[in-house]
Amino acid sequence: MQSRVLTLLIASAVLAPLSARAPAGAAADRWPQFRGSPALTGVSASKLPDQLKEIWTYDAGDAIESSAAIVDGVVYVGSQPGYLHAINLADGTLKWKYKATEDGLGESSPAVAGGLVYIGDLRGVLHAVDAATGKAVWTFETGTEIKSSPVVTGDRVLIGSYDANLYALGAKDGMLVWKVQTDGYVHATPAVVDGIAYIAGCDEILRGIRVSDGKEVVTVSSGAYTGASPVIAGGHAYYGTYENAVLGVDLKAGKIVWSYEHPDRNFPFQSSAALSGDRLVVGGRDKMIHAIDRATGKGLWTFTTRARVDSSPAIAGNRVYVGGNDGKLYVLDLETGKSVFEFEAGGPMTASAAIASGRLVIGTHDGQLYCLGG
Fold first, then answer.
1. What is the DSSP-derived secondary structure letter of residue 32?
2. Which residue, 70, 80, 339, 365, is the most exposed by fewest CB within 10 angstroms?
3. What's the CATH number for 32-373?
4. For 42-57, what is each residue's pLDDT tens digit?
5. Which long-range contacts (C-beta less than 8 Å, at least 24 apart) are formed by 92-97?
6. 8 A C-beta contact, residue 99 and residue 121
7. Distance separating alpha carbons of residues 11 and 324, to the nearest angstrom
8. What is the pTM of this model?
9. Are 241 and 269 in contact (CB under 8 A)?
């Protein structure tokens, strides 16, 4: 009996780092950045009803590729005409609108911290805007377009650019602290855990960069071009690639420990994965939403849509929320992958859902921003 107990204790100790719960996601009343939190888990503590209803719709005038942020009862989102919109969560009325650029706002999604809203534009400029007034506080110009989303950590804001650099700027003044050059576009959003920023790159390298001084401390070859952002938990990184795989990477060992591919349909993964407990959920260009066991890389279930899924899933409770290029928002049971509810938005959705205060907000390519709830 003692031998069996000892064996179980040893096994538990060995498995503990991987089976440890994922980092906390977004609080119930706020979703302050892309994927909800710096670890990019895509998880909200808020509760949504199984059957969602449309509460309001806001017309942004053109395509919304940016995923919304929600802080203090205000929704912030970018739109293709180059505007950052601040919209009241309660009723969908416009609070203010900030003109960032004539070149447009693409996939870069707002981050809100310290009374400022940060967003990158397709001209390559990062904007810091006063959250109360919509007035510019500072701007910082990179070499070319920004599709990465800003992440605020401590007194710094991190942003990637298509000029192949990851930048760390002073959050209050926009002054350059450091920049790290990679060998390809920095499309993905950095995930930040324990003072390290992780970027999965278009140069096929996963890098860990120390936020304090910009020193590169982790380098792992992904073996493939990567557009998705990594989610970090338990000393591991998880992200999809353009070589049709989702990878599990041991950051301490510096190696890929598993690679998931669908047995029949091989398409790229642009969607960034959400992580709840030991369950990883990600959209694929194979028109499917995939659930994967993060310990083993084993596929748990798939759900088939009518078009590719570039939108990144969000999780609240035991439900998965993800937009499709077929114009539908899908609500799935996290455990089984069964459809619980579908909302017909009409326009394609590559933006991801933001969830806070019992409401879900998501934009479409036809310029509509939807707020759904009970």
1. -
2. 339
3. 2.130.10.10
4. 999 999 998 999 999 9
5. 92/55, 92/56, 92/57, 92/58, 92/369, 92/371, 94/58, 95/134, 96/133, 96/134, 97/134
6. no
7. 41
8. 0.94
9. yes
